[in-house]
Inverse folding.
């Protein structure tokens, strides 16, 4: 027992004598709009600046967020679903004095479910960068040329306040007849290990009362913004006259559901990079049912965006565009 106690004291002393990460580099997490003025409430910029020559772990998946909702003592943890568990699976880089590593992150990649709902209501967020458990083999920044026993386990940037997010807009009608919509179009948030495993699940409901619609898979399209840039997804149009049996009644409680495979409706290479994609659903209703003496809703409609997370795949750096340059 005495030998174990002495060993533990020596480990504690070695931790205390080694430099902290804050002595080697500075880490900050700042809102995206501070960079270019564009409002993207969930997007933040992570910046690590070396104060002297160091070796640093530069891996945005090691960010952890503690969310404390406004007016509550409750604390919720948000972690990346694919956070590395060992130094061998993380990314490291040598940084000269004054050199900077920067990437953008989307908080919805880390927070989901009840944690995301708490964040949306407004919260104080305390970020941390590093490993969940500190050991002598894990570090996030160390002075160049030091041994592995001189280590640092994590960094703690300044907390920030996340303001309440406005409720997403309801479904809107597009085109020349823009205005109130008779239907609500919703895309369910989802996660998938890869593009090949991704399905987009949409629902169409009547906003009030009862409506009739004619829908097929090719009625839907999606506008996507993510790590790979912007692109659109849609099935090739289907020919032929509408079939009367495919007209269906919808109400606020009875919806039309459609599940579409991303690998079928999206261009090759879509959703290839791991990360957060913001997907906006659209639907086009062309058939009013007049030839069958039916009265169906027609028009083009757009629903609120939904978060789609791709979890697997090789790490792709989410670089910050140069000022005045093209967007990512």
């Amino acid at each position: 027992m005495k030998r174990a106690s002495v060993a533990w004291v020596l480990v504690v002393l070695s931790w205390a004598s080694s430099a902290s990460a804050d002595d080697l580099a500075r880490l900050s997490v700042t809102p995206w709009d501070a960079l270019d003025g564009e409002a993207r409430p969930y997007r933040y910029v992570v910046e690590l600046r070396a104060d002297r020559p160091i070796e640093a772990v530069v891996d945005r998946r090691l960010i952890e967020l503690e969310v404390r909702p406004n007016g509550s003592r409750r604390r919720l943890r948000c972690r990346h679903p694919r956070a590395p568990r060992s130094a061998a699976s993380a990314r490291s880089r040598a940084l000269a004095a004054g050199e900077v590593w920067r990437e953008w992150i989307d908080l919805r990649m880390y927070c989901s479910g009840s944690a995301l709902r708490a964040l949306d209501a407004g919260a104080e967020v305390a970020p941390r960068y590093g490993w969940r458990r500190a050991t002598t083999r894990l570090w996030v920044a160390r002075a160049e040329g030091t041994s592995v026993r001189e280590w640092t386990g994590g960094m703690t940037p300044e907390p920030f306040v996340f303001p309440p997010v406005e409720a997403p807009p309801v479904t809107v009608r597009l085109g020349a007849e823009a205005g109130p919509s008779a239907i609500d179009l919703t895309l369910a948030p989802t996660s998938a290990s890869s593009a090949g495993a991704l399905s987009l699940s949409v629902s169409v409901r009547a906003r009030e009362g009862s409506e009739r619609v004619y829908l097929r898979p090719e009625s839907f399209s999606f506008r996507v913004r993510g790590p790979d840039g912007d692109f659109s997804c849609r099935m090739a149009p289907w020919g032929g006259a509408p079939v009367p049996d495919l007209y269906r009644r919808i109400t606020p409680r009875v919806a039309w559901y459609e599940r579409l495979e991303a690998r079928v409706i999206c261009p090759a290479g879509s959703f290839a990079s791991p990360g957060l994609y913001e997907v906006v659903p659209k639907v086009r209703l062309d058939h009013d049912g007049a030839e069958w003496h039916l009265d169906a809703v027609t028009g083009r409609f757009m629903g609120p965006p939904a978060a789609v997370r791709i979890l697997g795949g090789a790490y792709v750096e989410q670089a910050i565009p140069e000022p005045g340059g093209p967007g990512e």
Notes: DSSP finds five helices and 23 strands in the chain. The first strand starts at residue 25 and ends at 31. The longest helix spans residues 2-17.
